[in-house]
Task: inverse folding
């Protein structure tokens, strides 16, 4: 272990109580993706801790989603920066904290966003502080904390790509897997909002004059779901449908939300072309379909994480725990950095599970070792 890594690891070794206190403070703030005030309140706690250690924090305001925070630790010798990343929004509506705030049962904590990903935000902040206290890295070190990842990073993506382009590495502290593993690959995801237009008619008096948008949509859903190909990693899922006026009216409109998942950038154009062909087909005479692209997450491909994972695995062994890499079908901001060709590793937060549910949990005893492993990994890039 390098002297920088040892000093950072030693600094973190005694910080568990502080980390738990910060986690409770973050969890006990409602910060749903469109709650800009709550998201910014989470950011204020993070910024105050960083600034107290002399780490500069810049805010990029956004009236809809809350600000993006960028923390900067200048490098001692310069060169391409290293990023640590995280998102401050959760999936939970306002009032969730009042109903079920942070609680703990031994080494397990519960509460909205405790794993996804307020535990990871704690790790990020303490890793930045540890490396600053240890004397700093040769390269610039950047903390980037966005506000809208849970809804596709509509404002965060542009800033992530601007900051990450040309970076030496990016580390995303999404929750560690239930297995204890980190994430070495993720699927990309694209949402499409589909609209089918038909022709209304009375279903009893002049049924033949109608053109059912619901009938056409039903045919398209069957065809869209048939595009799922598990061996290649492509899945399609229509998760929401709406349409029609009354039971006795041939439906003149119908809508659906389609989720597409894919393993590699190269798969996206091909699957999208097949979807477009299905939507262009006139399954019911007199109907037509259009779509609007929603948020797009790029995949994190394993080739972009392999070197960093090898370093992280060695760092974890030095701290005293074993870890493997894991693939997940979920999307995250690390896909944006990986798609730029930046070496990227994800799932580096404390071990947790049941994200997006009332059962969400986080293992408090993994806060310090996961932070130590990340700090040591970053320090090895300086060697």
Result:
């Amino acid at each position: 272990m390098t002297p920088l890594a040892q000093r950072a690891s030693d600094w973190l070794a005694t910080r568990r109580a502080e980390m738990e206190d910060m986690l409770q403070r973050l969890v006990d703030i409602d910060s749903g993706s469109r709650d800009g005030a709550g998201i910014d309140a989470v950011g204020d706690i993070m910024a105050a801790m960083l600034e107290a250690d002399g780490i500069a924090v810049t805010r990029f305001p956004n009236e809809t989603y809350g600000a993006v925070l960028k923390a900067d630790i200048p490098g001692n010798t310069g060169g391409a920066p290293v990023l640590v990343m995280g998102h401050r929004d959760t999936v939970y509506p306002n009032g969730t904290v009042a109903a079920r705030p942070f609680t703990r049962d031994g080494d397990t904590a519960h509460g909205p966003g405790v794993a996804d990903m307020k535990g990871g935000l704690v790790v990020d902040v303490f890793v930045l502080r540890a490396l600053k206290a240890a004397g700093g890295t040769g390269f610039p070190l950047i903390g980037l904390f966005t506000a809208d990842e849970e809804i596709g990073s509509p404002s965060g993506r542009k800033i992530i790509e601007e900051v990450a382009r040309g970076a030496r590495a990016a580390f995303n502290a999404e929750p560690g897997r239930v297995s204890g593993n980190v994430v070495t690959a993720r699927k990309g995801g694209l949402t499409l909002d589909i609209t089918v237009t038909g022709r209304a008619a009375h279903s009893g008096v002049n049924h033949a004059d109608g053109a059912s948008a619901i009938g056409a949509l039903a045919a398209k859903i069957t065809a869209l779901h048939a595009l799922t190909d598990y061996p290649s990693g492509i899945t399609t899922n229509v998760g929401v449908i709406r349409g029609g006026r009354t039971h006795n009216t041939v439906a003149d409109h119908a809508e659906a939300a389609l989720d597409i998942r894919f393993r590699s950038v190269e798969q996206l154009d091909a699957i999208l072309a097949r979807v477009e062909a299905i939507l262009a087909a006139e399954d019911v005479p007199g109907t037509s379909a259009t779509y609007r692209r929603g948020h797009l997450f790029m995949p994190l491909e394993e080739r972009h994480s392999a070197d960093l994972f090898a370093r992280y695995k060695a760092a974890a062994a030095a701290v005293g725990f074993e870890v493997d890499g894991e693939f997940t079908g979920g999307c995250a901001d690390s896909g944006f950095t990986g798609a730029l060709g930046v070496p990227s590793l994800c799932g580096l937060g404390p071990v947790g599970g049941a994200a997006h549910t009332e059962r969400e949990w986080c293992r408090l005893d993994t806060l310090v070792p996961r932070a130590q492993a990340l700090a040591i990994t970053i320090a090895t890039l300086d060697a």
